[in-house]
Automatic annotation (TrEMBL):
Pfam families reported for this sequence: Glycos_transf_2 (PF00535)
The protein, known as: Glycosyltransferase family 2 protein
InterPro entries: Glyco_trans_2-like (IPR001173), Glycosyltransf_2 (IPR050834), Nucleotide-diphossugar_trans (IPR029044)
SUPFAM superfamilies: Nucleotide-diphospho-sugar transferases
Species name: Streptomyces coerulescens
Length: 327
């Protein structure tokens, strides 16, 4: 490639050998002379993901495979790809997912036409043979928007509740302005601080009604399916969000939204803690109690209103009682 690429596609891969053929084939069906494809192999331990990538990417133009010396997690793998990229725009694809033919050209056309910092898209969730369209939670489509206007309201699903990095495309100027990188070492919920940062600090964005990303759920190797200590990194993720909000001029309003998100995720993890080993489940409960304890009574009361009886009861009990909170 003689000129800098228009688009860099960053694909972190870890223990996904069986999915590599479909992923790479989908990228072959999206390749263009001005697109580059960067695979980051995060030191797989259970299969031959690296060897599969070396073989299969031979038929994908402008592709390369970078191998970590040790496993660093999804956030670090994405950062490795970002650092190696040269494109004017960047996008992400998880190594066990795939794209519809021509999707990347449509995605690139959308951000070029709208001339915004980033564009978010819908996606298709795949569970076994079932496919379900998931719409980005912003009704205003194909028009430039102020990213801050899509953070609130507190009690409704908004764009910061739709953090998937692979559901979008991002202008390199965001990286030049100190955005777009992930917090190194985060094993889960790595996209929470990332999406909050984009919506607080970027100047413009848009939502496009594109549905070309196919996202697998229920993959055995996915961290969401594994009940180990890495799952507890969501506490660090949300603490980072809250810490970065401290200096925001609208911290009073935005903190309420972040606290509600935090409580929703804590409740979800507690209610599904049966998948954890006993010692990790105990650690989850301890960290949940500590996180809830750092919130004032008024903040918690407001965060939990309307959350549902089961979740409110769980969070009340873990914290040690919160009288008067409406379900």
């Amino acid at each position: 490639m003689t000129n800098p690429p228009t688009l860099s596609v960053i694909v972190p891969c870890y223990n996904i050998e069986s999915y590599v053929p479909e992923t790479v084939t989908s990228l072959v069906n999206n390749e263009r002379d001005d697109f580059e494809f960067i695979f980051v192999e995060d030191r797989s331990t259970k299969d031959k993901t690296y060897e599969a990538l070396l073989t299969l990417t031979k038929r994908l133009k402008n592709s390369r495979v970078i191998r970590h010396e040790k496993n660093g997690g999804l956030a670090t793998a994405r950062n490795t790809g970002i650092d190696a990229s040269e494109g004017r725009y960047l996008t992400f694809l998880d190594g066990d997912d795939w794209l519809a033919p021509g999707y990347l050209a449509d995605l690139t056309n959308a951000i070029e036409r709208l001339d915004v910092d980033f564009v978010r898209t819908d996606h298709v969730q795949v569970t076994g043979i079932e496919r379900t369209v998931h719409r980005a939670p912003e009704g205003r489509r194909h028009t430039p928007l102020d990213p801050r206007t899509s953070i609130l309201p507190v009690d409704d699903t908004t764009m910061v509740d739709y953090p998937y990095a692979w559901a979008g495309i991002y202008h390199r100027r965001l990286l030049d302005q100190g955005m777009l990188r992930f917090h190194d070492g985060l094993k889960t919920a790595e996209d929470r601080p990332w999406i909050w940062d984009l919506h607080r600090r970027a100047d413009s964005y848009a939502v496009a009604s594109l549905r070309g990303v196919f996202y697998r759920r229920g993959v055995a190797s996915s961290l969401t399916q594994i009940g180990d200590v890495r799952q507890l990194d969501f506490f660090r993720s949300f603490d980072l969000v809250l810490g970065e909000l401290a200096d925001d001029p609208e911290v009073g309003k935005l903190r309420k939204k972040a606290l509600r998100n935090y409580c929703v995720v804590i409740a979800h993890q507690l209610l599904s803690r049966g998948r954890f080993e006993r010692s990790i489940a105990a650690r989850l409960k301890q960290m949940a109690a500590e996180a809830l304890g750092r919130m004032s009574e008024d903040e918690l009361e407001e965060a939990l209103v309307g959350m549902g009886e089961e979740r409110v009861y769980m969070l009340r009990r873990i914290r040690g009682g919160m009288k008067g909170v409406a379900a």
